[in-house]
């Protein structure tokens, strides 16, 4: 059975839609017309197949972002997560018209609203209630809900986890491991300007906010898509936007009026950007090694 036919079948059987067009599409992402509007069907994530749990993670991130945005941002509503076959999951979400352009200030105001949103009753920790991914790379999220400081979360679940995966994916790269160990030992220095470790509180983060995941409706309402959500220090969302986007999503009055930069921001921003360089090194290989090493050396002052 073609992919589109199987998705149509599951939409109808689940009661999500009462009518879905019958199309012959066997692979890739696609759009279906339904009685509740057009929907976008995304198969897998990060350019490859994915288990159902990963697409359920994405759907939960979309739901939480939409609730936190307070109308200042649009986030596609997830309709259904299903499987075409084991390890070949898909997510169906509303299709938005992304032909518009948003001002930086409006985008920043929407992102600030997300970062300032009250934590939900079901999650008061760093991390996320579901394990996930960032692109095609697994992302552990403290789904068991252990209580910890942001420093410990970043050490164990972000920087430390990327270094662990690199020991498997690039076992001969002893330089990155040495620089990484030195950086882990010095992590407290980067967070000292923020006060006591327990004073750093979690915000809902998009998690993968590069420029390609930012768009707008025709009326100029900003839209964010394809999240890798977790709850963390708000500045951590700046990392990949600095890597791919120059940081413009957060360098505007809409954002900085609610979250002004504080002492030590430049170094922490490099630290958060480093996470995504290492993530890309793990996914794509050596072409991202140089950027990772350069950032580590800058952070260590060497």
From TrEMBL:
<comment type="similarity">
    <text>Belongs to the fructosamine kinase family.</text>
</comment>
<dbReference type="InterPro" id="IPR016477">
    <property type="entry name" value="Fructo-/Ketosamine-3-kinase"/>
</dbReference>
<keyword id="KW-0418">Kinase</keyword>
<dbReference type="Pfam" id="PF03881">
    <property type="entry name" value="Fructosamin_kin"/>
</dbReference>
<dbReference type="GO" id="GO:0102193">
    <property type="term" value="F:protein-ribulosamine 3-kinase activity"/>
</dbReference>
<keyword id="KW-0808">Transferase</keyword>
<dbReference type="InterPro" id="IPR011009">
    <property type="entry name" value="Kinase-like_dom_sf"/>
</dbReference>
<dbReference type="GO" id="GO:0016301">
    <property type="term" value="F:kinase activity"/>
</dbReference>
<protein>
    <recommendedName>
        <fullName>protein-ribulosamine 3-kinase</fullName>
        <ecNumber>2.7.1.172</ecNumber>
    </recommendedName>
</protein>
């Amino acid at each position: 059975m073609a992919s589109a036919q199987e998705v149509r079948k599951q939409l109808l059987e689940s009661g999500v839609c009462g009518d879905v067009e019958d199309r012959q599409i066997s692979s890739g992402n696609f759009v279906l017309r339904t009685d509740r509007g057009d929907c976008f069907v995304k198969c897998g994530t990060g350019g490859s197949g994915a288990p159902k749990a990963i697409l359920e993670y994405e759907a939960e991130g979309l739901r939480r972002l939409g609730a936190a945005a307070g109308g200042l941002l649009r986030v596609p509503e997830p309709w259904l997560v299903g499987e075409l076959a084991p390890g070949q999951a898909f997510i169906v979400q509303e299709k938005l018209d992304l032909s518009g352009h948003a001002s930086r200030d409006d985008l920043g105001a929407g992102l600030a609203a997300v970062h300032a949103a009250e934590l939900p009753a079901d999650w008061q920790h760093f991390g996320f209630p579901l394990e996930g991914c960032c692109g095609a790379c697994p992302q552990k999220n403290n789904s068991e809900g252990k209580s910890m400081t942001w420093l410990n979360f970043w050490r164990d679940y972000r920087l430390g986890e990327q270094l662990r995966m690199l020991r498997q994916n690039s076992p001969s790269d002893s330089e990155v491991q040495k620089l990484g160990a030195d950086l882990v030992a010095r992590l407290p220095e980067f967070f000292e300007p923020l006060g006591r470790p327990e004073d750093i509180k979690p915000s809902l983060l998009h998690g993968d906010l590069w420029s390609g995941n930012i768009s707008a409706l025709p009326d100029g309402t900003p839209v964010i898509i394809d999240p890798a959500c977790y709850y963390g220090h708000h500045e951590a969302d700046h990392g990949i936007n600095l890597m791919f986007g120059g940081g413009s999503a957060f360098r505007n009055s809409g954002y900085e009026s609610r979250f002004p930069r504080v002492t030590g921001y430049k170094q922490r921003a490099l630290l958060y950007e480093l996470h995504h360089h290492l993530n890309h090194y793990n996914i794509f290989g050596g072409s991202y090694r140089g950027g990772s090493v350069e950032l580590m050396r800058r952070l260590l002052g060497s």
